[in-house]
Design goal:
homohexamer; Jelly Rolls; 2 domains; five-stranded antiparallel β-sheet; 29% strand; disordered N terminus; metal-binding (chains A, B, C, D, E, F); disulfide bond (chains A, B, C, D, E, F); Germin-like protein (chains A, B, C, D, E, F); glycoprotein (chains A, B, C, D, E, F)
Chain lengths: 209, 209, 209, 209, 209, 209
């Protein structure tokens, strides 16, 4: 029955090899575009391009927030290029805090793996939606809205947020205000915070201007 | 030459009337969907559905920020439904300020029409891009990033921002923090602001929790 | 400084409440559309709409494949509607297998949480990309391509796949061929499998035709 | 080997039945949305929903243009809803002409099946790209640009254009100008055509105003 | 409280600098792609990249249509690349006319800033939707449909149209027909206009063929 | 009336030439991106770039399946780049079969031109939707689902499938399983097919591993 099927092999698959773009592993040395990076030549692609091991180890959380964010965006994991997905790892020590932040370019789905995490976001209508999440529970944060995660109780916590873009972005509110070159008079005018407070925080976080 | 062309009229256009959706004016009484509102029946659509006059008049700016934002989003201007565009009107008195805010769902292009406006945004990399804009000048603010506008000098100012969505959203930082039900301990934990300051601002702006 | 800012509150936020669609929690009783379900009225939305607890417990894997898939798609987790994200839980007993399958509507990013999982996909060019993944490692599977996961070693395994759509779909190859109403002659003609084998598998899996 | 696989059947496929939206056959009685019509309940969908026979017969071309266009858009073929594809049938008698027209909502790929067709489009840069196409040849027309098809020689011709939308739209230039309620003074002002000519063509094609 | 927060600075923001693409200012020397131009290296981007001053001055309208269109598309304003927005400036002298035209790649929202403008579009169903717009009023024109703007009364007029694409395109009907290389016999066949008229208009507008 | 209109020509069209991207003919020597290939310089584009003649001739079907697929995807027809459309030609001898396959990246609309074709697809819910199609009839296959075409009766058949992407992909089930480097133990584990059968088919189709 299959004696001559080898003819088929040449007929169909010879063309399909050249024409199909199933994936577009990023060539990070090429210039980015609005749709992502140019593709690595398919012939050079290996299984390793689709695998990322950089989130396997816990990050050091011996810092003021008792927490760390480790990204697996397209810049770290080029196989995500064009696939509208990415991930990160959140390590939180006891009472660790991921401060208020937004992802300008993606929705987020948080998967809690260890500990208890109080997570929440603030809507455009100024309503806070928040919940304490346990192991195996999920919470979704719509794109561009301020949100936070806090380890509750005395245990450390672990979560993997995933994103609807290979390049979700990350704007941390305190850094935008106090670790940037946003001048103190402008911060004051656009937030109504006290100039002395702004200067103090900029001193700590390294802001200028 | 055109004697029998009337036949064509029936042949072609009789079908095209029923089948074409050039536009989808929102029926705001219908349930919204992720792609927008259901369409008003085409037979009920008139020229007025594509026109909006609600931005023609200057808004009252006798308030603490000497400024006002008047939106022409899909909820005000149903003809925008599904068209990936909307607008607003910014009125700024002398030294008027539009405080730090984001549009979670759209990029913004600001068209300055009167006065001098200092406008800027903060990138994910914590760099401020800002410029004083004069009449007829444009500035673009990428989606989801914190930005602001301030009237400079002693003159009032006017600008029309336009957006890449019929429903761009608007999250005002001070309102998210201090006019919401975001509890003082959580604001403090996720921003490092002083609890006394947070309570004071919540008192003024009406926040609870 | 903030004495009169309450004016601002009314000026800006009164309009923003009505106009902003930050999210569109599915009303599953409404008719689906190509972009997702109609939105639940925002006034009825609570924090619980953004949280899903149905993946917290391990599924029963006492079946022939020693494995189970538990979905958290929009039908289970309505808060995902329109957000281009979803998740599932893979429980694998020792040597458990998730048979060859595709997701017609989404890319997949697999996060391995326990055990060792051999995962792989087959490209249009008939190349298999596969790898043994350990705890905390990620692998991405481009949309629509056949892929599989197998627990290797004598330990059970756990993974959370996430998807670039709230409704990724799931076509399991064996079910499509042998648990459907796909007639034996047609299966045979379109796969070159032996009719006796097809009949036997249909008997086991419940296929008809 | 497959003795207990029936367990798997219940485990996996019971959930997948309810959750998967592979398609969204239009319920044309429901209100349209920017993304298409609401879906017919999946349980009522049959094979016939995915098939359209309305292009099988040649249309009558005994009219002034010796030609006819028969659409298979979503309004005729509800199975196309949400699938970003549609088709039409062009019948051209000898020297038949499909007059200048645009599809505001889709790119077009023309497949010539019989006869010789001179087809072309005009770019924004005012360059005409045109070619005589024979049986089995294809030509692509980018979205929104004026284009035409003419049967050349003494033979009739047949072609199937396909579109990158289920609802591509069709604006025929002569009808827009002379079969609409576009007033003669406005046609004249916006096209520089002579008022007498405009009135004459409106008389023939049925325009008003 | 913030003594050690400097640790956080290194922990989080060192990675975020490299990985985030908030914007993609066009490198116009690079090859365009279907999604836009490649990005200028982020380190070379300055505030000026997000600002465009080329629409600030009125254009000369001493021409036959008493009008001028000045574009701020991605080719003029590279900061718009990938942001799905652009703008233009319409200057109209008394009775100035922007002739019938389409934007093949974008919806348009017109903002009238001075004078009275009669604006309208023709639907696929051959219905004209038109209105006289005053200062501060908006009108929306769906993608790909013929539309026009005319200054009414004895005053000059000014408007800023904005578009839902950084590259909306512009096909002016008279130019497509009479300023292109579209041959007179083909214009005649596909529009039913008189050959003598076509030749005359081509003579004036510079068409060939 | 048109004496001075030549002024207009310079005013408007001089800018529009440079700025408009109506199309993006692929430069196949450039690196692909997630949105397609870089564009050939517009000045080098000719009518031939929009035309493809490679589907005009019947393919040889003297092979085991009595059938052949000839693609006109972007790799063969660069003018399709970015236009979300492509096509192919199916030649089927008497009883010819296009075996079960998927297009991971596109929906398909099949246009039958000759003979009788039994076509069908299998949904995620394991339901087969199938029909015998005659000349001029259409059937649509949603993205990523297994489907097939078979010439019924003693006549040969011809069809043109079209796709909602310039790069739809093609995964043929038998090739994925038996013509790839998918190892026999893994095929067996993930499909429940018998190892002897798998080895036999791999021998015929050239699979390894």
């Amino acid at each position: 029955m299959f004696i001559h099927i080898v003819f088929l092999l040449f007929l169909l698959s010879s063309t399909s090899h050249a024409t199909v773009q199933d994936f577009c592993v990023a060539d990070l040395k090429g210039a980015d575009t609005p749709a992502g990076y140019p593709c690595k030549p398919p012939a050079n692609v290996t299984s390793d391009d689709f695998v990322y091991t950089g989130l396997a180890e816990a990050a050091n959380v011996t810092n003021i927030i008792n927490a760390a964010v480790t990204p697996a965006f397209v810049a770290q994991f080029p196989g995500l290029n064009g696939l509208e997905l990415s991930a990160a790892r959140l390590d939180l020590g006891p009472s660790g805090v991921i401060p208020l932040h937004t992802h300008p370019g993606a929705n987020e789905l948080l998967i809690v793996l260890q500990g208890h995490i109080l997570a929440g976001f603030i809507s455009s209508g100024n309503i806070v939606y928040q919940k304490v999440l346990k192991k195996g529970e999920l919470m979704v944060f719509p794109q561009g809205l301020l949100h936070f995660q806090i380890a509750v109780g005395k245990r450390k916590a672990l979560a993997f947020p995933v994103f609807s873009s290979a390049n979700p972005g990350l704007q941390i509110l305190d850094f935008a205000l106090f670790a940037s070159n946003f001048s103190t008079p402008l911060v004051t005018q656009t937030t109504f915070l006290d100039p002395d407070l702004v200067k103090k925080l900029k001193g700590v976080l390294g802001g200028s201007g």
